[in-house]
Sequence to fold (96 residues):
Amino acid sequence: MIRFGLIPLVLLIGTGWFAWASYRRAAQAERALAELHAENRALLHEARALERAVAAAEQGLRTLSSHPSVPRDVAVTADLTLADIRRLVERKELDD
Fold:
């Protein structure tokens, strides 16, 4: 009689332990996923801020290179830098 009562008790305890361990792993995975989403949002925000800064620098260089009072060698350097910035931005563009 004790044997027949012990087996269901062990199965019940084992099932409870397995369920609790699974719940803990799922909760931990959910927290990790939430942290990753927060980091992803922060990185996207930073990338957009950098894109705006590059666009502002590009506009400044464009203005500098086309201004009549800027010496030719400075204008050529500004144009080269502008092309470099464009190449870098096009290669590392983010999908929205």
